[in-house]
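Purpose: get a first structural picture of the assembly so the mutagenesis plan has something to point at.
Setup: two entries, given in the order below. No constraints added.
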Amino acid sequence: MAAPSNRRPGFSRRAQYGNFFGYLIAVAGMVAGVILLIVSIGNAGAFSGLRAGAADTAAPAAKVAAGARTGSQSVWQILSGYFTSGARVAQLEREVAEGRVKHAEQAALTEENGRLKSMLTLTQGDQRPVVVTRMIGSTSSSTRRFATIGAGTNQGVRVGMGVRSPLGLIGRVVEVGSNSARLLLVTDTDSSIPVRRASDGIQGYANGIGNGTVQIRLSTTGINPLHPGDAIVTSGSGGIYRPGEAVAVVVSLTPDGAIARPLSDPGQTEFVAVEPLFEEIATPALTPQTSSAGKR
Amino acid sequence: MPTPLPSALRKFGKPRINRTASPVLALAMPWLLVMVGSLSPTWPVIASAPVLPPFGFLLLVGWQQLRPGLFPVWAGWPLGLFDDLFSGQPIGSAVLLWSLAMLALDFIDHRFPWRGFVLNWLVASAFITGYLFLALQIANLAGGLASAVVLLPQLAVAILAYPVAARLVGLADKFRLIPIRSV
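Result (structure tokens, whole complex):
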């Protein structure tokens, strides 16, 4: 379809000025975009209030949508269940039998663990989550991986808290609004988590690649000791993430580590738990006293 | 792409004596549709990789190609600012890229006034490719480290989704011009 040419609007001075100022505002908008970018890249938290406000505004509708998401998934599962029930019952019975044996072994281990811990006078840390909430959205078209959860400062969420699903670590809170918070997912390219192999404690880092997997980089050199299927858990060094939380499973090896798939797919996760900060901020009595010493 | 209204609404879509389109609906519909597209991060899809097309951008290009001149040329920055609030990109990314896209689309519109849908699709594909790669570069400047390979599935999905977005725009265009206001 040929466009009505409104670039040359005839002799109307008003229309000519309108056109001119339209282009002027468009170019000014571009320049403003560059300035905004420079500010937001220079200071990552510059517009966090604005973003958090927008997320708060959209949160009620997003919560309803999140309910519909899990609802529609369960409908599909009910339908497919009719076709696979026989095989599943047999499989579940076998799993229950195996599970009973495992449970007995586990009870023995727990008992032994408790005994060893009491010998070392370690206490079991309080692991109660700050809040259990819904995942209400994620940046699905940007290469940055952020997600939004439906709890904020009103529910006690603070920046830096780890977030996990029943299957494992999902990410870390980076921005908080009053009723919503923004997470940096473990698959984001900015996310780097100190990890170890669950079986023997080889140290490394899990860096997001941005395509739904993480790259495991080992702190050691030499022969790559990892194998596909190894479980990777947080090591707790650095103090952001609690040690021993499941993160990922190795799927393929690279020369200096491995590619691993996160255990908790955010898309399959309905409810997540926000965990309290692992390491307390140092008490005021312990802050360095260089300035006051200088005054004295 | 012009799209017929659903049969239930077709009766209302016909021109009638003493009825005209509501100016509020006719002017607000394009802005609202693009903003709803920008809200896609709050839709019930949670992804651990970038897979969904940038719906806001697709709808903006769709409107600009179906109805050139309906949006003012400066529409890129207010809509881009709204998109930035939700997209996860650093703020200013869509303000810049959407403004650029609007100016470039305006230029193409005046340079090639007679276009078929295939040419529109080709132009839109070029714009989507440029937009996704520049957005990736901007996200990487702000702390990301993603490689361009990550984008390829999303790029394919976005280019294939463009005709659907253009259909949706065509339907919304029919809808916004339904004569409901009595004169």
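The first strand of chain B starts at residue 19 and ends at 21.
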